[in-house]
Structures are given as structure tokens and as C-alpha cells.
Amino acid sequence: MNTLSYKTVSANKATVEKKWVVVDAKDAILGRLSSEVARILRGKHKPSYTPHVDCGDNVIVINAAGVKMTGNKMLKRELFSHTGYPGGQRRKTPREIMEKKPEILIEHSVRGMLPKNRLGRAIFKNLYVYEGAEHPHEAQQPTEIKL
Q1: Are 92 and 53 in contact (CB under 8 A)?
Q2: What is the pTM of this model?
Q3: If you ran DSSP here, which 8-state letter would residue 43 be given?
């Protein structure tokens, strides 16, 4: 019996193959889109997935302004931030964020689905979100994914 066929191969930085993918957020539900993007960023869709290594793909999200939320979440939900000063808590609804910079809404949602450590911060750098349909990553020849 060949015992080499039973060895578990663990991916590392040198053996990981990263691809570039484009995801269109037009008319997509925010939570469902974010969970799929987080899964691709993390690399869980690959057979060589290793939990302690950044083995996911680089993800480009376009048409961030077209993302939707079900029910009254666009008006009722509140996102919190803090300035660091006493009494510096700030609240914004997703509608207010969409009017100013819709990329923040997707980035905030995906960041919450990634690990809260150095690996999560490194993985988050592989996400690129754009408000419109144009992006400056044509040189990487990204493949489009339908969610």
C-alpha cells in the first residue's frame, strides 16, 4: 500500500494559487452577497483550503450602489462608530451610508464575516469594492462569477 497517498497536504504562502474574480452586486441582497464574498476571500471553496493561511481569491465587487436589503432594514438598522472621544458615538442608517459612499456598506458587512485577527485583516485587503460598473483591475484578467 502506498502510504504517501494518505498524507494531508497543507497549503502555505508559496503554494497558494490566487485568482481574481468579479462579483456584480446589482440587485443583490447584502447579507447573501457578503457571505459568498467572504467565503471566496477566505478560500473555503477550494479543495486546498487551510484555515491558518490566506488561500482565498482576490474579489472585485462592482455596482455597490445597487445592493438591496430586505424589509425595513435600510431605514431601521443602525451602524455604530466611535470617534474615540467621550460622547463620540455616531449612528448611521444604511440609507445614509448608501447616499454618501455605498462601498462602506459592503465592506462593513464582509469584514464582520472574516476572522477577527491578523489573518482576517490580511484577507480583507484582497477585497476591492467599487460604486459603479468600472474597475481598474483589467490587467489581472478577472473572471466573472454569478451569485
Answers
A1: no
A2: 0.90
A3: T
